UniProtKB/TrEMBL annotation:
GO terms for cellular component: plasma membrane. It is found in: Cell membrane. It comes from the Bacteria. It is a multi-pass membrane protein. It comes from Salipiger thiooxidans. This is Uncharacterized 5xTM membrane BCR, YitT family COG1284. Its main location: membrane. InterPro entries: UPF0750_membrane, YitT. The chain crosses the membrane at residues 39-66, 73-93, 105-123, 144-165, 171-189. Keywords: Cell membrane, Membrane, Transmembrane, Transmembrane helix.
């Protein structure tokens, strides 16, 4: 019986949390935004007195119910750990790191690359970063519509809202970062590959919770 929290899975979750948090840190340092639940949390953190970590956790809460019903207890617990970890680590990195020069376009690209790799790590270890990421995984599994492409569609809504509150140049650089993030996921992660790996006896990148 596969352990719910093996050392293999723990290192994967830790790596995913760290890389995703680093991506959000780049965004915050340059005054940018991203898509999905994290994007809403970043955008609200510019407008509300609450920090990103608190907002990210609060916005993700309703999606945990969907996760529990559709993905099971193990996936949901790991996702809760990932969301809480990203909330805490992002706050820590925001205070521990500073940048003398960080061009917005470079920040967007670095954020997209780091977060994309971090999210893939979470997906491969039967977790997600919460929010719409949970729905995206369910949609790909049931319909074949790629997670990255699903997230691009929802990102468009977030960026439309961001245009109201942020300078156009910042939103444009943010969009470039989101394209990088979702391209990394679309090109490097597929539910079908997870099933093939499982049939070959390899550690499954993404499997149903049992």
């Amino acid at each position: 019986m596969r352990k719910h929290f093996s050392l293999y899975d723990m290192q994967g979750l830790a790596f995913g949390i760290l890389l995703t948090s680093l991506g959000v840190t780049f965004l915050k340092a340059a005054g940018l935004v991203t898509g999905q639940t994290a994007g809403l949390a970043v955008l609200l953190s510019y407008l509300a007195p609450l920090g990103f970590g608190t907002l990210f956790l609060l916005i993700s809460l309703p999606f945990f119910v969907l996760s529990w019903k559709r993905r099971g207890a193990v996936f949901t617990l790991r996702t809760v750990i990932a969301v809480a970890g990203i909330s805490v680590v992002t706050q820590f990195l925001g205070h521990a790191m500073s940048f003398d020069a960080l061009p917005p376009l470079l920040a967007g690209i670095l954020a997209g690359a780091c977060s994309g790799v971090g999210l893939i790590a979470l997906f491969r270890h039967n977790a997600s970063a919460g929010g719409l990421g949970i729905l995206a995984l369910i949609v790909e599994e049931r319909t074949g519509f790629k997670t990255g492409l699903f997230q691009m569609c929802s990102d468009a809504v977030v960026f439309g809202i961001a245009l109201i509150y942020l300078p156009f140049d910042n939103v444009l650089c943010s969009f470039a970062g989101a394209v990088v993030l979702n391209a990394v996921i679309a090109w490097n992660f597929q539910i079908g590959q997870a099933r093939s790996a499982l049939r070959r006896g390899c550690p499954p990148p993404f499997a149903h919770s049992r």
